[in-house]
Amino acid sequence: MAERSKGAAIATAAVVAAGLGLVAYAVTESELGKSVVSWLGGVGKKQPPRLSRQRVSNHAATWLSASAHPAFSCREIEGDYLDARSRNPSSDAYSAAVQVIDKDLPRTFPMEMFMKDPEFLGQLKNVLATYAAYDSPVSYVQGMNFIAAFILKHVKEMHLKQGHAVEVAKGADADEVVTFVLLTRLLSHPRYHLRDHFVHGMPGVEVTNFVLKALIREYVPAVYEHLEAAGCQPIYFFEWYFTLFTHILPLEVVAELWDAFFERGWAPVFQVILTLLRILEPMLLETPRGELSPVVVVLKSFQNHTNLMALGEAAASGGDMLRIPPPPALLSTAEEAFPLVTPEKVQGLREEAQRHGRHARIVAGAAAAQERGAALASHLMPVAEGGCSAGLSASWCVVEPGTGAGGGGTEGIS
Q1: CA distance 261 to 62
Q2: pTM
Q3: How many CB atoms are located within 10 Å of the residue 393 CB?
Q4: Is the Cβ–Cβ distance between 303 and 240 less than 8 Å?
Q5: Helices 144-162 and 174-188, packing angle to 10 deg
Q6: d(CA 242, CA 5)
Q7: For residue 287, how many other CB atoms are within 10 A of its CB?
Q8: pLDDT higher than threshold 70 for residue 322
Q9: Which among 200, 73, 72, 88 is positioned nearest to 134, based on CA atoms?
Q10: Phi, psi torsion values for 265, nearest 5 degrees
Q11: pLDDT per residue as tens digits for the range 227-256
């Protein structure tokens, strides 16, 4: 048992290190442990260099181009933004949403320097509050803060790289407007349909879980069987995809993944999830079959930064070489490993999920109706033909609970 725990800790540290960019293609276990601890020692102490026009990315420009759609033009969404900003809604629901936004701002990328900038925080709040006013059925849902902050970061970098901001209406903030455009497209564009993840009832989560389960069963069957035996459902991957990996993987890796996501939709996201599961497979299969808790610990371990120190210290010296793709290669590795997970395949599974959901709702509705009928029947009592004059094909009269006798006549019929 001790050897199993030790092996699981080492493998988990490998995944942590891979996700954080600490290792190259091959490292020894002892080197891995030192790398994790070394990285932890520098958290919060080493400030990144200030942005220069040569260093910043232009991912936001890629996203704007890839998400262009006649129904979601920049100018039209800019008009929606200005209109929503001018409403200043006073409803209790909107006020509650703004209060939650205020609480979530300091919890959004707390280790990132760009979140220490008061201007950035003010712009982020404006975008989220304006979206809450613009789309009241969604309003604000926790998780949108990570997505909007990540967009805003790259929009500001795009403007810095270009040397000027895009032209927007007089008095409007260009960073906020472009961020709102991209956020709106992410939520409403038919390629991404993220809005279904955030709207009341979260129907998109059900669809995504259905697709993910089907892909795991097809492409990582041993993991699928082990998860099934443990009763582990795709909802346990919720934190991975709900914010599009923004608080799971290093942000430079997430930016590359988003480039692919904006171009191709959900297929790259599923390819990365399958790749991570393939990396985690040895650890998952080491957990006791049929036990859920150890499986969940493995799935959550590499995304929980509080576990890093313990995992790093647990990495033993010596042992075999661990081969992990470094983060810059994660997306290309995922695409090469699962080339058949195409946008077309994902769309087909989405449609199957929607059919399955409609069928499930029909079955659930029929079952509920049957239960209601059974409940009613428990308060009804068959009587002799003619005992009730309600004109029913089968004569039933309502019985008051506990009386054991028919109500008699038509007044008992409901």
Answers
A1: 11
A2: 0.71
A3: 5
A4: yes
A5: 130
A6: 30
A7: 20
A8: no
A9: 88
A10: 80, -145
A11: 999 999 888 888 889 999 997 888 888 999
